[in-house]
Every structure is written in structure tokens, then in C-alpha cells.
Amino acid sequence: MWRHERSHRYELAGDITGFAPRFSQQIVTFRPNTTFVPENASDFWNPNVQQAWLDIVPEGLGYVEVKDAKQRDNLPHPIHDYVNNTVFTTSMTHQLHCLHTILNAYNTMSVTLDNPALKYNPIQQPWHVNHCFEYIRQAIMCAGDVALEGAATTFPIGLDGEDQGGSDGWDAKHVCKDYSQIIAYLEEKTINHVKWIS
């Protein structure tokens, strides 16, 4: 059963170890933006599109060093790639990495199906794409965003000229963490300053 009182320790979509602070919240209206997901699948690899993705992730892609790990509760096992440091990644940046990975695989398949003469590389590591679908499914269910969404405004008209109905989610208002605060904090705590997403 849900409760109205707020825990002194846990925050929805927050960090239970005490490493990350609480970030302020703001109301954000979702609007379509084809910069990240162009209509033409082959445009996904355009440098401007890839730069847009890099612009929304912090340096180090959320890989952070926890220097006082012995003072933290509930830490997962550290990432093995950093032998002399206690390093973890963050869920938000992992989710963005996974979404980019799925889009890369989808666009590779789409371009190849539309133009079989092209010799695009086959999807690398299909297990990674499957991992990403499952990871994002659990992240969506964890956050449980129940913002109300209205009628679709961007879906194409059906073949019969009728409105296809449903919701595209645009113009709905959501309670979100201040993304600029999250990026600034993660860049302050990063293990490296490399910009990458996949």
C-alpha cells in the first residue's frame, strides 16, 4: 500500500547510499524533438545528431569515484575496469547509453532493410541490445511516472483519413529533477572527463 509520508532517507529515483544529493525539482512539458531521433534512419549517424547525444550526458558518462566507500551502505560491487579506484556508474546515464544503443541497432536494421545494397555492419553484441531493453523496462517501472497525458497531436492521419487516436505524450507536464544540477554533480565526481555514450 502506498503512503503519503516522506522517508528521511529515500527519494524516488534517488540514491540510497547517500552519495548523491537531493536535486531540486521542476515541472517539464514534454515536446517532440527530432534532433535525437531523426525521421530518416541514416541521419542518426550525422555528426550533429551524435553531438546532440553527447551534449546531454556528463563527462565520464556518469562513471563516478566514491572515495569514502567504506562509509556508505548498500553499495553494489564496484566496476572492475578501475583497479585502483572505487568506481560506479549511475542509472540515468546507463539508461541514456542503453537508449542510444537501441537506437543505433534499430537504425542499422532500418537502413539495411530499406537498402540491402548497403553494407552496414551487423548489430554488434545483440546480447547488449537485449540487456538494454530489459534494463530500460525496469527503470521505467521503477520511476513510475504517472503524469496524465492527453490526445495525440503528432500521429499521422490513418489510411482512411481518420484520426488514429491514442496519446503521443506531448504537451503533458511532468515533475522532473533539475537535469542541469545532475549533470554538474556528476561532472564534479567523475572518474574521467571523456565524453562518450556508446
UniProtKB/TrEMBL annotation:
<dbReference type="GO" id="GO:0043386">
    <property type="term" value="P:mycotoxin biosynthetic process"/>
</dbReference>
<dbReference type="InterPro" id="IPR021765">
    <property type="entry name" value="UstYa-like"/>
</dbReference>
<dbReference type="GO" id="GO:0016491">
    <property type="term" value="F:oxidoreductase activity"/>
</dbReference>
<comment type="similarity">
    <text>Belongs to the ustYa family.</text>
</comment>
<comment type="pathway">
    <text>Mycotoxin biosynthesis.</text>
</comment>
<dbReference type="Pfam" id="PF11807">
    <property type="entry name" value="UstYa"/>
</dbReference>
<protein>
    <submittedName>
        <fullName>Uncharacterized protein</fullName>
    </submittedName>
</protein>
<keyword id="KW-0560">Oxidoreductase</keyword>
